[in-house]
Amino acid sequence: MRSGFFDKIQLNPVIAAVNDVTRLDEAIASPCEIIFLLTGDIFNLESIIKKVKENKKSIYVHIDLIDGFSKNLTTLKYINQKTDADGIITTKNSFIRPAKSMGLFTIQRLFMLDSLSLDSGIESIKTIKPNAVEIMPGIMPEIVEKIHHETSIPIITGGLIMNKDDVIQSLKSGAVGISTTKKEIWYL
Fold first, then answer.
1. Mapping DSSP to helix (H, G, I), strand (E, B) and coil, where does residue 61 land?
2. Which residues contact 148 (CB under 8 A, 6 or more apart)?
3. CA–CA separation, 109 and 89 (whole Å)
4. What is the pTM (predicted TM-score) of this model?
5. Residue 174, SS3?
6. Which of 91, 94, 97, 134 has the most other CB atoms within 10 Å of its CB?
7. Three-class DSSP category at 8
């Protein structure tokens, strides 16, 4: 596996999430060691990844959000064989095992909407065994603690992280890192 996720997250637990390609340079210039790519298309993906890697940052591609990709295993093969991405982010359970077998670091993104999504999310984590999980929204310390306790899978929190206190609460509740599009948090 080519990912140095855990080494980089120890250096800085804040992950720059980029949802607009025009903000990529800001993310690269930030002290964040890891970038989550939440935008792009089949025409610019390789150049985005190359630019990030040339700047000694790690990049994880949210494959569900890249324009022009079909939602099948060919997407994973492309990411694995044609790019130097460190791993993938996906909400699709069916992508985790094949991506792991290809040597890609896998982050399963879960949305916690209610107790049913919490229970099914925990079962999914236990069954699928991604390398890490991103919990959204990230401002639920009790939920992070519960998922961490029941699965022992590293957790990233994301979504609605508004300030330093949210970051501290997430980390205290057991998250290894937080992802955010908010530039001011990249510099905490």
1. strand
2. 155, 173, 174, 175
3. 7
4. 0.96
5. coil
6. 134
7. helix
Measured at the CA of 180, the angle between CA 177 and CA 186, to 5 degrees, comes to 80
Show the low-confidence residues of the chain (pLDDT under 70). 1-3
Tokens at 84, concatenated: 């130097």
Q: How far apart are CA 159 and CA 136, in angstroms?
A: 5
- Tell me the chain's radius of gyration from C-alpha atoms: 15
The whole-angstrom distance between residue 178's C-alpha and the CA centroid of its chain comes to 9
Q: What gap in Å lies between CA 6 and CA 121, rounded to an integer? A: 22
Question: Is 106 in a helix, a strand, or coil?
Answer: strand
Token output for 102: 């290809």
- In sequence order, what DSSP letters do the residues of 50-95 get, joined into one string? HHHHHTT-EEEEEGGGSBT--SSHHHHHHHHHH----EEEES-HHH
* pLDDT value for 2: 55
Helix (H) or strand (E) holding 137: none
> If you search the block for the tokens 């990709």, which residue do you land on?
69
Q: Which amino acid is at 148?
A: H
Placement of tokens 């639920």 in the chain: 140
Burial of residue 182 (number of CB atoms within 10 Å: 0-12, 13-18, 19+): middle
| Tens digit of each residue's pLDDT (9 = 90 or more) over 56-109 | 999 999 999 999 988 789 999 999 999 999 999 999 999 999 999 999 999 999
Q: Select from 87, 81, 55, 65 the least CA-distant residue to 21.
A: 65
